[in-house]
Amino acid sequence: MKIHTLRCLIIALSCCIAGTAMGQRFASPNAKAQYHRSRTVDVKHLKLEITVNIRKGTVAGTSELTMTLVQDSPTLNLDAAEMTIQKVQSGDTELSFTHKSPRLTVTLPKGSKRGDTLTLKVSYEASPKRGLYFVRPDKTYKKRPYQAWSQGEAIDNRYWFPSYDFPDDRFSSEIAATVRAPYEAISNGRLIDVTWSKKGWRRFHWAQGKDHVNYLITLVVGDYDEHPLKGHRVPMSVWVNKSHNKDWKRSFEKTIDIMNFFEEYIGYAYPWEKYDQVVVEDFLFGGMENTSATTMTSRTIHDERAHLDFSSDGLVAHELAHQWFGDLITCRSWAHLWLNEG
Predict the structure, then answer these.
(1) Which of 216, 217, 218, 220 is nearest to 337 (CA)?
(2) Is there a domain that residue 1 lies in?
(3) Per the structure, how many domains does the chain have?
(4) Which of 30, 96, 128, 230 has the most CB atoms around it within 10 Å of its CB?
């Protein structure tokens, strides 16, 4: 196992050195230059307390960021695109701010200095056109289920919650999402509790204890059935719409074998609290490796006949590998995103 781990590290280092030496040879002539972002804060924890209305296509609530100032500055910038900012608070004190999408500039409490830790709570509402997508039935697709799902990579989570949306900072996170029954809300980490918040609405509280980056924060809302995969120390489940209950197993039954292979080959145990695979309709890609909760396209579920010609094993393995390469170790800037995929 140690030999395999060393081999992976040598290959990754060689790619980095080669990429630096070759300069622009990797890039398209029309590629936009990518630079590391200068930051004034180190985010420690993010908590979202939100209500998601699938039928209206809205999200509203608060984004609470606990952070340490790493520079002396009277203001700080957060990312908040195409949304309405209602107020910003530090404790019981309302702070002044300016919002010009996608930048939210907050005036810090007087006397704030480098090394101070503070918590900002941003109250907001949005009808996202990116980042959080709403799926509904229509005249052509009358059986399409109601769903909402996020896609944060690269910088689209800023469209549904205010945050520090760049991959050079890692922090723990929580999402408490209130949704109308019978819908469920699925997110990173472990499920703390489910409570009835008001008539016909339930609050799902998820917490991701291990630090990760902003673009890997996920939320899926829909009428789901959970199918546990048993036989591994890590809790694993596949979440599907009821229409896929008959066929889901063909696509995901090898997940535990793939997990065992990666743990042995890499020589590093799977690092997160659980591993969910959440199947959604009309997804933009094949899958997205959100920390501990990968989003999968419904097109990867096949009936018995189609399964003779198409396998989901490659997609399942690709997204699971990202839980180490891309999630546990993340590119510092988007200039190095190719290393995540490589």
Answers:
(1) 216
(2) no
(3) 1
(4) 128
